[in-house]
């Protein structure tokens, strides 16, 4: 991932420095090492990249899509393989792929990317097929591919490294992926015989998106099909509306209507209902912005009025590993699409465009709306009847001005020192009847965190090392069938099946109660910690206190236990060799660090850029260190003679923060260095600024960059204040 915009970078820098003392670094109460939990696993020798997981309708079979293979496993014990089907790439196809410069051993294979139910006895499967995406039907009775060899363009990426998402809705496949060999043409489409639709190929519709997830939300009660069901797509894309020097990523939710048939003239065979909005996941009081979406889970339950979207986010610049979970009500997103303001692009200063709120008149029917009862009543029975004005408007204004804010306007969970990758959420009823949304979040190091919210506090019940090799977990699936609740995790090396709780591992009543795990309760009758979803016996006599008050336990335990509410204590088993993991890298404001000079992002080395001759550009450097820390700027090895503005801010512990920004113009390419010098040592970062031919695009880019630097410098004072505030609270907490 590229360096992010300066504001994003500065914000993350704040998080890095102040993270040490900020209270959002919950530690898992227990860590289960891989060898401590005997998990059921599946791995077929010679087969890798187990990236697609699908549960059968009755949840008794787990289908797994890997590289060149699909497996059917017993969902109760995935080590029991029921069937397998291989889909290999032919040698001449492989050779043709290699001729185009792709790797024959890795890229020119068939990576299964789409694994969706087609009917009760068939799956719809698509694979990258050596950069020639293809789709086929898998007969579940014979477990054989039918050999249809459909062109999979637009449904499956060419490149196994590219993002993709898909969902099957009533036998039609909705997918988000790239449409060409280069991966440069993003598309959200519907594969349908009677009405295939796609997005317009235009930057305002999709701008270098990274697809994450898609799902359908049914509008009307079962059986009653008004064609008003919606399909939601989640992705991260490059911002068009905010201007920064670097590519600023924005997490999005987009929506299309199932009943959409495209326009008659305008938007023919294109979505007339494609609208998108920004997802907000940030902590306003700490300036933390999470702008890269990693995964989404839709929580549905009969006792929930509406589905809730859970998203896992990271900041764009994440060298320390910081992750968050935000939850959104469906109705909040729907309100933005059905009542929010649109954004409009305006051309300023010749070629330079800017996105602003559109305050003018909006045509009726409302652009981007589904064909609902009201539309039908007004004789618009299909999107094919929509007036040109409405269609032209939505074609030009796919982006909403309003953003989708999370429930409670804040993340559910923020965690340091971890990169979360995937999420599933289960609803568990505790013994006292309260319902807990249990979040299972996987990491890029093979672990699974299980967390709940307790009285405005987050409690990470446990961390389980699912994969021995600390590899990224790429897919998570929850089976929440009564009595048999499992989490399935897929990675490059295999699939793991984990129970939702390890109640039996809590050996005493105190340990069982202190776990504060809604799935577990102590049974004095059998003197064991039991899983509530597995006991048929009445809950009478069971002991569970979600506040961690273990005083209700029979007064016989000789074992010492931590005081109630000690969620920040990391309690490892006595035979566990690992030490409690620190929630933050060891970079607190300790005595050693005080003497060090540290460059903070955005580093100069990430600011390499192309400019046109004599166009102005800016470079930025930031560092902390002893009070005498200052900058030296060099150009091609010689100290710069122009004036370079610098700001120094004394920090309460005697250290200093220095910021410096250089404005320059060049005739020829040059190398710039900024060095933070002090008696404690020097730190240097360098970047090359390359002069290119004068072109309109460069000119435009230069104007944009200058404008964004102005914005950054303008914001600087405001940010200094939050820096200072955060620093002060940090010191209070730390000492
Ligand atoms: C497939 O798995 C191999 C082996 O772990 C890994 O090196 C490779 O990066 C994976 N490829 C993709 C596209 O995930
Ligand atoms: C799963 O199946 C394997 C092989 O049949 C067996 O050895 C193992 O004990 C089973 N595990 C569980 C938890 O049932
Ligand atoms: C699927 O396989 C079964 C058993 O071999 C066969 O009877 C059936 O016709 C096949 N279905 C299709 C659609 O090919
Ligand atoms: C997808 O499109 C292809 C080509 O138009 C068609 O043959 C196939 O049946 C479609 N599949 C689905 C699931 O709609
Ligand atoms: C998180 O990911 C970033 C970027 O890939 C990496 O530099 C960092 O070490 C990771 N952190 C953890 C705790 O895994
Ligand atoms: C809808 O069309 C019908 C039949 O053409 C007509 O009678 C009715 O007045 C129309 N309604 C509206 C709201 O235009
Ligand atoms: C989300 O929905 C819940 C329950 O339906 C409600 O209590 C809450 O106020 C909603 N939050 C927002 C931000 O709309
Ligand atoms: C740091 O820079 C100063 C001035 O350029 C130089 O005199 C000194 O030797 C440098 N120190 C180190 C440790 O590189």
From TrEMBL:
Q: A Gene Ontology molecular-function term?
A: semaphorin receptor binding
Annotated InterPro entries: Ig-like_dom, Ig-like_dom_sf, Ig-like_fold, Plexin_repeat, PSI, Semap_dom, Semap_dom_sf, Semaphorin
Where is it localised?
Membrane
> Where does the record place the region Disordered?
540-592
Q: Name one Pfam family in it.
A: Sema
Q: Which UniProt keywords apply?
A: Developmental protein, Differentiation, Disulfide bond, Glycoprotein, Membrane, Neurogenesis, Signal
CDD domains (alphabetical)? Sema_4D (cd11259)
Q: Name one GO biological process term.
A: positive regulation of cell migration
Q: Which PROSITE patterns match?
A: IG_LIKE (PS50835), SEMA (PS51004)
Q: Where is the composition biased (Low complexity)?
A: 566-581
Signal sequence span is 1-23
Domain called Ig-like: residue spans: 591-690
Ranges for domain Sema: 19-500
Task: Please give the GO cellular component terms listed in this UniProt entry.
Answer: extracellular space; plasma membrane
Which family, according to the similarity comment? Answer: Belongs to the semaphorin family.
What protein name is recorded for this chain? Answer: Semaphorin-4D isoform X2
Q: Which organism is it from?
A: Bison bison bison
């Amino acid at each position: 991932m590229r360096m992010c915009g300066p504001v994003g970078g500065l914000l993350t820098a704040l998080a890095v420095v102040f993270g040490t003392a900020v209270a959002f670094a919950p530690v898992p109460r227990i860590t289960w090492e891989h060898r401590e939990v005997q998990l059921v696993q599946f791995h077929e020798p010679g087969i890798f990249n187990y990236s697609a997981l699908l549960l059968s309708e009755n949840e008794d079979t787990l289908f797994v899509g890997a590289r060149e293979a699909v497996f059917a496993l017993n969902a109760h014990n995935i080590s029991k393989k029921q069937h397998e089907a291989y889909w290999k790439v032919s040698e001449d196809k492989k050779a043709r792929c290699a001729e185009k410069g792709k790797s024959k051993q890795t890229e020119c294979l068939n990576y299964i990317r789409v694994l969706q139910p087609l009917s009760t006895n068939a799956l719809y499967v698509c694979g990258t097929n050596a950069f020639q995406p293809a789709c086929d039907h898998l007969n579940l009775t014979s477990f054989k591919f039918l050999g249809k060899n459909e062109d999979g363009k637009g449904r499956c990426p060419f490149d196994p490294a590219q993002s993709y998402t898909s969902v099957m809705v009533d036998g039609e496949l909705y997918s988000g992926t790239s449409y060409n060999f280069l991966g440069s043409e993003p598309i959200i489409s519907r594969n349908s015989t009677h009405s295939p639709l796609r997005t317009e190929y235009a930057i305002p519709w999709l701008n270098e998106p990274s697809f994450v997830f898609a799902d359908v939300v049914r509008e009307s009660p079962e059986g009653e099909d008004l064609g008003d069901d919606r399909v939601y797509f989640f992705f991260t894309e490059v911002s068009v509306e905010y201007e920064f020097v670097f590519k600023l990523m924005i997490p999005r939710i987009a929506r299309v209507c199932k009943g959409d048939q495209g326009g008659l003239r305008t938007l023919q065979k294109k979505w007339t209902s494609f609208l998108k909005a920004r997802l907000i996941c940030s902590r306003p009081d700490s300036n933390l912005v999470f702008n890269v979406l990693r995964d989404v889970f839709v929580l549905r339950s009969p006792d929930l009025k509406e589905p809730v979207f859970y998203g896992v986010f990271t900041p764009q610049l994440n060298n320390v590993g910081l992750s968050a979970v935000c939850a959104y009500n469906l109705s909040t997103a729907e309100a933005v699409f059905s009542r929010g303001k649109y954004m409009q692009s305006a051309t300023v200063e010749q070629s330079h465009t800017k996105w602003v709120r559109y305050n003018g008149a909006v045509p009726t029917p409302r652009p981007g709306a589904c064909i609902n009862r009201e539309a039908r009543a007004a004789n618009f029975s299909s999107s094919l009847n929509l007036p040109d004005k409405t269609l032209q408007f939505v074609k030009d204004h796919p982006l909403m001005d309003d953003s989708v804010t999370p429930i409670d306007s804040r993340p559910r969970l923020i965690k340091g020192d971890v990169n979360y990758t995937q999420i599933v959420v289960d609803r568990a009823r505790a013994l006292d009847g309260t319902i807990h949304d249990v979040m299972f979040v996987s990491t890029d190091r093979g672990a699974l965190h299980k967390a709940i919210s307790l009285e405005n506090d987050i409690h990470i019940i446990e961390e389980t090392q699912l994969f021995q090799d600390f590899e990224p977990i790429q897919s998570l699936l929850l089976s929440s069938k009564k009595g048999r609740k499992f989490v399935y995790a897929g990675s490059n090396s295999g699939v793991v099946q984990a129970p939702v709780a390890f109640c039996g591992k809590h050996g005493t009543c105190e340990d069982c109660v202190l776990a504060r795990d809604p799935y577990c309760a102590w049974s004095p009758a059998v003197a064991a910690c039991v899983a509530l979803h597995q006991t048929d016996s009445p809950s009478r006599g069971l002991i569970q206190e979600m506040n961690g008050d273990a005083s209700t336990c029979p007064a016989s335990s000789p074992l010492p236990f931590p005081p109630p509410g000690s969620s920040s204590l990391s309690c490892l088993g006595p035979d566990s060799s690992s030490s409690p993991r620190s929630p933050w890298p060891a970079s607190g404001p300790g005595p050693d660090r005080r003497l060090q000079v540290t460059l903070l992002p955005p580093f100069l080395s990430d600011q390499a850029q192309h400019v046109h001759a004599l166009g102005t550009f800016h470079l930025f450097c930031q560092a902390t260190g002893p009070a005498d820390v200052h900058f030296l700027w060099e150009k091609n090895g010689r100290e710069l003679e122009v004036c370079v503005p610098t700001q120094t801010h004394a920090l309460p512990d005697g250290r200093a923060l220095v910021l410096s920004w250089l404005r320059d113009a060049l005739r020829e390419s040059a190398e710039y260095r900024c060095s933070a010098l002090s008696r404690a040592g020097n730190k240097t970062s360098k970047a090359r600024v390359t002069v290119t031919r004068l072109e309109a695009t460069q000119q435009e880019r230069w104007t944009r960059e200058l404008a964004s630097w102005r914005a950054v410098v303008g914001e600087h004072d405001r940010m200094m204040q939050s820096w200072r505030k955060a620093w002060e609270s940090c010191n209070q907490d730390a000492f």
